[in-house]
Design brief:
Layout (H helix, E strand, L loop, with lengths): L1 H23 L3 E7 L18 H9 L1 E7 L5 H10 L27 H7 L3 E7 L27 E5 L10 E3 L2 E2 L9 E3 L29 E2 L2 E2 L3 E3 L11 H15 L5 E6 L20 H23 L6 E7 L42 E4 L7 E8 L3 H9 L15 H4 L9 E6 L1 E6 L2 E4 L7 E2 L4 E2 L7 E4 L15 H17 L8
Parallel strand pairs: 1-11, 1-12, 2-14, 3-4, 3-11
Antiparallel strand pairs: 2-13, 4-5, 5-6, 7-10, 8-9, 12-13, 15-16, 16-17, 17-20, 18-19
Helix pairs in contact: 5-6
Length: 509
């Protein structure tokens, strides 16, 4: 009897000891990941020509970060770093991928979704993928696509292979092309032309939106893409319906998992090119299809929030809203984005944009809402998507091994507003690497071009080193490298060490 009483007492004490940890764990986690959305593209970050009420609602109800970053200034490396906790520059082959690339995240390694699976979360990705599919040589579009997101931690996936300006223009659901007619097999090529489908180069009269540079290969839905494709007609998407399709799949997942913990990565395609928003949004922004696509992205955010409200899950769901990299206006199609931009500044007060080493390349909207834990406000902490792995692990009560997430730091205290500081240092990737250390920004000398003339964006390269004090000069206009040579040497040494060390997460973090 005494032993039985002791066992009951011990169990009660254990429950009391662990209760605070469980109380701090988010029941659900939702990451809303937009595509090519700039710091200045939403009204809660200063846009006046556009109104984004649903993102603004998140900003009002959550913590809005002014120094939040994507890991890179382009999509594939950013997505790789978010899921793995490893800077993409460490992994060859993680540049912008063609639509028929093999999966660049090897099954078996720890990822955000695989870690959360172990913590008891159901996991899903809906939307843009762009991390490759299948084995070396690319996927079999007409059979089982393996490896896929389902092999690196996602229980459910409904994705596009790459981007809408690249073939194949089909959706993949849980390792199979959705709606594929087996009698009409898909063939994809990024080399020689295949099949007899018309191309933008040879048949411009068939286009409803002409390319401005490149993007003149196979035509699907009146839009010429990068790459060649034939077959799969029953499975082809309609660009104008894409946001509706992704939202419906995401909401269906939320409804299915309403009674158990879940993690959802909801990756919109908007406002990436080609921009063909639904007729509900076409012409509504006054800024052409890019502005309309931003309105559509905001609507998508609203649908996710409304679903959480309806399912009574909002209070204890951690929602993070952000973007995979900075903005670009003309990225391959003649869609009036340049002529109708007016005084709108997609990068806000920052220089550069997508592809750029300047802050506009990686400084993006970054909002955290968790009503049960996070007090609304504004934070200047330096935070980055590469830290999702370690930070979510801490929140979910999981322990990373020394080999997991080599560049992912636990910045959960900053995410929750409990700390005013996040990272001390951050590598910003854009062709090469730049380094942030607190207020200082260092860019090594480079022989790369200073401008991407196709998209009219400053790349941040120069033949001399650059050093900026972002506290005094957020627009990176005054190069202080000549004034502070010791600081340049210090940061160059640190960047070299980070590159060579193979990791930047200290042991035990």
């Amino acid at each position: 009897m005494r032993n039985e009483r002791f066992g009951i007492l011990a169990a009660a004490l254990l429950l009391l000891a662990t209760a605070p940890a469980y109380a701090q764990r988010p029941r659900n986690i939702v990451v809303i990941y937009t595509d090519d959305l700039g710091y200045g593209d939403v009204s809660s970050y200063g846009a006046t020509a556009l109104k984004t009420p649903n993102v603004d609602r998140l900003a009002k109800e959550g913590l809005r970060f002014t120094d939040g970053h994507s890991p890179a200034a382009t999509c594939t490396p950013s997505r790789y770093a978010l899921l793995t906790g490893e800077y993409a520059f460490r992994r060859p082959g993680t540049g912008i991928l063609p639509g028929n690339a093999a999966l660049v995240i090897e099954p078996g390694r720890t990822t955000v979704p695989s870690m959360l699976q172990k913590a008891g979360y159901a996991t899903a990705v809906v939307g843009k993928w762009h991390l490759g599919l299948g084995p070396k040589g690319g996927p079999d579009w007409n059979g089982e696509i393996r490896p896929s997101p389902n092999d690196i931690g996602f229980d459910y996936s409904f994705i596009m292979a790459a981007t809408a300006d690249r073939v194949p223009t089909i959706y993949i659901e849980d390792r199979h092309v959705a709606g594929l007619d087996p009698s009409d097999p898909i063939t994809v090529s990024y080399g020689e032309p295949i099949g007899n489908w018309p191309t933008g180069k040879a048949n411009p009269e068939l286009l409803k939106m002409a390319p401005s540079h490149g993007h003149d290969m196979t035509i699907v839905n009146g839009i010429s893409r990068i790459g060649y494709m034939t077959g799969g007609k029953a499975a082809l998407w309609k660009d104008e319906d894409m946001a509706d399709v992704f939202v419906a799949k995401a909401v269906a997942f939320l409804e299915k998992q309403r009674d158990s913990p879940f993690f959802l990565l909801f990756a919109t395609h908007d406002p990436h090119v080609p921009r063909l928003p639904h007729p509900r949004f076409a012409g509504k922004s006054g800024m052409g299809p890019r502005g309309d696509a931003i309105l559509q992205a905001d609507w998508s955010v609203g649908e996710i929030l409304r679903a959480l409200d309806r399912l009574k899950l909002a209070d204890d769901t951690l929602v993070i809203f952000t973007s995979d990299n900075g903005p670009v206006v003309d990225d391959g199609y003649q869609d009036d984005a340049v002529s109708k931009i007016g005084r709108h500044k997609p990068s806000g007060p920052f220089r550069g944009g997508k592809y750029s080493h300047f802050e506009g390349g990686t400084r993006v909207p970054f909002i955290v809402r968790w009503p049960a834990r996070v007090k609304p406000g504004v934070s200047d902490a330096l935070v980055c998507h590469v830290d999702f792995l370690a930070s979510f692990a801490a929140l979910a009560g999981q322990t990373l091994t020394e080999n997991d997430g080599p560049d992912s730091l636990d910045t959960s205290a900053a995410f929750l507003g409990a700390s005013k500081t996040g990272r001390r240092e951050l590598v910003e990737q854009a062709g090469g690497e730049a380094l942030r250390v607190e207020k200082w920004k260092y860019m090594p000398a480079s022989k790369r071009p200073k401008m991407n003339t196709q998209v009219n964006i400053e790349l941040g390269n120069d033949t001399v080193p650059q050093l900026y004090d972002l506290a005094a000069d957020p627009g990176e206009r005054t190069n202080l490298a000549g004034k502070y040579p010791e600081k340049v040497a210090e940061m160059e040494a640190l960047l070299t060490n980070i590159r060579q060390a193979g990791r930047s997460r200290p042991p035990g973090n």
